[in-house]
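Not sure how to ask, but would you mind making up any protein sequence you like and the tokens describing how it folds?
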Amino acid sequence: MRKIILRVIAFYSLILAPAACSKNEDPLHEHSRFSINSTIYGATRVPALDSNGQGHFSEGDINTVFFQDTQNRLLKELSYTYGNTYYWSDFQLEDAIGKLNVSACYPPVKTDSPTVFYWDVTSQEVVTVDFLAAPPVEVTQGVTTDVVLKFNHLMHKLVVKLKATGTTITEKDLGEAKVSVSNFQSAAVIDLLKAKVQRASGTISQLEHTGIESIFILPPQPIGTIAIKVELNGRSKTFQLSECKVGSAFLTQLQSGKVFMLTISVSRNSFTITGQDIAPWGDQGEANGNITI
């Protein structure tokens, strides 16, 4: 009888063993990946750009990424390097369940106050004065593997182009012309979580450039007394941006993500502001008027 019992137990052990193993063993599975698919609209200084300044980030580029809850409270901030492999488990967001919001910026930043971040375009310490940010998109933790972020310019781009008219001014002369912009506030106060400029701040500043084309990246702000000065062949002329018209209305604001392009036709006796071209950053109207020296 003892032998029979042992054999029965052994027999059922063989039957139950695979079932028990199948029930208790953790299944093999791949961790949920996390990757960013980004697009840059009209960037001025980031890798992989076309002739219009549009493009995308490339391997090795770094963004600062912000994870927020659905009430836009910051949960975690991290540096994301394109080309590296990331998994949701790398971010240690165990306390966050379900939906999250993800935003990002370039260049990468370190700040204790992401909702009140100061970006000074006159600073000598920044890699580029242009600042790109992607507004938050909704993702599901552990489920969303491809996060699509659309980066936009938060600054304003002011472009001044000089064009020779007649034979009294040469291209070489224009190459020696100095163009300056003054009376603007130097810093933008940015909410990095929303990817928006809240206001302008900082000291009243001036920037200058020599050559046929001058590009100034400025914080969005009211026009106020912002002035453009052109110096050429010992002559100079200062005029106010507030004198420029957009359609039938005077220019009142340097808008975030917009470009204002002035083409100035230059002769020995005059500077003529002839208007603006549309650039990838967006269209802020047309400026008209004559300036004579």
